[in-house]
Amino acid sequence: MQCLNDYHIPLYLSHTITEIRGSRRVEGAVVSRVDGRGKPVPGTERLFDCDTILLSVGLIPENELSRNAGIELDPRTKGPVVCENMETSIPGVFACGNVVHVHDLVDFVTAESQRAGAAAAAYALQGAAPAEEKAVPLKNGEGVGYTVPQRVRPGRVEKYAEVFFRVRRNFKGSVIEVESGGNVLSAFKREHMAPGEMEHIVIPKRLLEKAADDGITISAKEAEKA
Ligand SMILES: Cc1cc2nc3c(=O)[nH]c(=O)nc-3n(C[C@H](O)[C@H](O)[C@H](O)COP(=O)(O)OP(=O)(O)OC[C@H]3O[C@@H](n4cnc5c(N)ncnc54)[C@H](O)[C@@H]3O)c2cc1C
Q1: All residues at 6 or more sequence positions from 134 whose CB lies less than 8 Å from its CB, including other chains
Q2: 59 C-alpha to ligand 1 centroid (Å)
Q3: 70: domain CATH number?
Q4: How far is CA 209 from CA 3, 56, 152, 176, 204, in A?
């Protein structure tokens, strides 16, 4: 908003491009208001002279390296499946940042990179985790699109596991529920949640140790439905 204000760039919410003009190159764009169902409202067309149109169509992780290495990918994040310490399905290979899931804020990338770096150093010193180590799957329930990490090994967690996820739709006056084996282990209130803003919770080690074999499910609900 500050950038838009500083450069007097108008921001039209609930509008869409309904026509692009020009033959050899772009000369203008017709922009119309949309109704509550996203349909253009006839009679609201405005023509803007322009020579370029930029479309913001979202980001997905670039996974050439992960795919070529044979790392298990999560179809929800389009990035590698990772454990609590950012280790991928190949022991000794760690991933972090936008290659795992798309971040809005670089601060979370930094935190993830520190976790991955420390785990890679520990792997170099101590070697691989025992194959039979308990791993709790983290699953997305109602209203949640994905979780990172997708697996947590309680034995490797010092105090708590950090979990990141995105909700599927806008929520107001909502609650995040952490559930396992039919029991709600913990709940977190949120005033507002939106798909464009990554959510972050922590699950204490003692709750991870209590989790049922079928894992932990994270859901987002309106507070009155919870
Ligand atoms: C338009 C936009 C605006 C943003 N604004 C903000 C903001 O204001 N504040 C904020 O906190 N965050 C912002 N972010 C988010 C932030 O930029 C990202 O979360 C962060 O840069 C991700 O860091 P990364 O190291 O994981 O990935 P990247 O920064 O994308 O770094 C990955 C690097 O790997 C390189 N690479 C890829 N494949 C290979 C390969 N095969 N071999 C070698 N190198 C390779 C790429 O060239 C790139 O340099 C913004 C993101 C975008 C897209």
Answers
A1: 153, 154, 155
A2: 11
A3: 3.50.50.60
A4: 47, 42, 10, 20, 9
As a whole number of angstroms, the distance between CA 90 and CA 69 comes to 9
Are 225 and 148 in the same domain?
Answer: yes
H/E element holding 3? Answer: helix 2-6
Contact criterion met (CB below 8 Å) for 129 and 156: yes
**Model pTM score:** 0.82
Q: How many Å is the maximal CA-CA distance in the chain?
A: 69
State whether 181 and 143 are in the same domain: yes
Domain limits at 92? 58-129
CA distance 106 to 171: 24
- 65-121: pLDDT as tens digits: 999 999 999 999 999 999 999 999 999 999 999 999 999 899 999 999 999 999 999
Ligand 1 binding pocket includes 105 (Cβ within 6 Å)? yes
Q: Which atom of ligand 1 is nearest to the CA of 96?
A: 26
Which of 129, 153, 174 marks a domain boundary? 129
100 and 147 co-located in one domain: no
Residues 117 and 166 in one domain: no
CA of 102 to the centre of ligand 1 (A): 9
Verify whether ligand 1 is closer than 6 Å to residue 102 (CB atom).
no
Q: Domain end: 129, 149, 184, which one?
A: 129
The total number of structural domains in the chain stands at 3
SS3 190: strand
